[in-house]
Design goal:
five-stranded parallel sheet, Rossmann fold, 10 helices, 2 domains, 9 strands, globular, alpha/beta
């Protein structure tokens, strides 16, 4: 893969994606046996990782922690910056420069856009440079979520000719949903993919993402408020929740009625029999729990796939991918 850090989805090209997915498959196979698991745990027992999560998370945190443990890495964590010297006025740069001298890898989740890139650039100019993984950065990027989403789609369509030519419908808060942004950019590497962006007008994709997709060679996209037609045309539906943690920036968004964009069990007969339903979680009313029993519900596999793809990412950054 050849990267010093994993910061944004734009750094990945198709060969990088293919290598990561192949490695993830190998790791899954090793994990199926005791000997295989012991082999994986013997790869990095001499290395330490820090999970610096200054934004609430359980799923992503545990997924990364599990990925580290699969490879034998010891982990430490900070999940509340108020317990660190930042409470005393220390800058985030000084805090993380200090932490980088204790560990070999820093995995960061922050509500601040661009923070991971800033820290990576700062550390690269010091003697304590370590790899940084962006585990979610404000409303702008969530590259590892996009990678696991793409890995899930690849596996789901393996017997249907792959992702090329498929229609992916993304529903919900497309304006502030960082998973939508990151996944959309990764999909530009696949030929003849169509993305249907379906949302209330107030939650349509941001102008910068629209511009980047307009310049992409292999992809087309539609923006619509027609939920029924959108889900009926989709090979995969990517549901997302309303990102109301950002409502303080625009209180008027609290008044938007999004109920007609909720996927319920009543919609299932309208979907293609081969359709895949994804959700990055956590979910609310936008995805009916009654859908869980439907064979097209792919979101539980999607959650587990996150552990495998993140293990592959760490193996690459720590230089052990070639021995797996």
């Amino acid at each position: 893969m050849g990267f010093a850090h994993v910061l944004n989805s734009g750094q990945f090209q198709l060969p990088d994606l293919q290598q990561l997915f192949k490695l993830s498959d190998k790791i899954r196979a090793y994990n199926d046996t005791k000997d295989g698991l012991m082999f994986l745990q013997g790869l990095l027992p001499h290395k330490r990782a820090m999970l610096f999560f200054s934004q609430p998370s359980t799923r992503t945190f545990l997924s990364f922690q599990s990925a580290c443990h699969i490879l034998g890495m010891h982990t430490s964590e900070i999940r509340d910056p108020s317990t660190s010297s930042e409470k005393k006025g220390e800058t985030i740069e000084d805090s993380l420069r200090t932490f980088s001298s204790y560990v070999d890898l820093i995995i960061m989740r922050s509500p601040t856009p661009g923070l991971c890139e800033r820290i990576a650039a700062m550390l690269d100019n010091t003697k304590s440079a370590v790899p940084i993984i962006n585990a979610g950065s404000g409303p702008d990027e969530h590259p590892t979520q996009a990678l696991l989403d793409l890995y899930t789609l690849e596996r789901s369509f393996k017997e249907q000719g792959g992702l090329a030519g498929k229609t992916i419908c993304m529903v919900g808060d497309l304006k502030r949903g960082r998973t939508v942004r990151s996944l959309s950019l990764l999909l530009t590497h696949y030929k003849d993919v169509t993305i249907i962006f379906c949302s209330p007008p107030e939650f349509k994709i941001a102008s910068d993402l629209r511009t980047r997709l307009e310049k992409a060679k292999h992809i087309s996209f539609i923006e619509t408020t027609n939920f029924q037609d959108s889900i009926a045309a989709a090979d995969a539906i990517y549901m997302t929740r309303i990102q109301d943690e950002y409502d303080a920036l625009d209180p008027s968004l609290q008044q938007i009625d999004t109920t007609k964009f909720n996927l319920t069990a009543a919609h299932l007969p309208q979907l293609k029999t081969t359709c895949k339903i994804l959700h990055p979680m956590p979910r609310r009313k936008e995805l009916d729990t009654k859908i869980d029993a439907d064979p097209r519900a792919t979101y539980w596999q999607q959650q587990r796939n996150g552990m495998w793809i993140r293990t592959a990412i760490i193996a690459n950054l720590m230089g052990v991918a070639d021995v797996i």
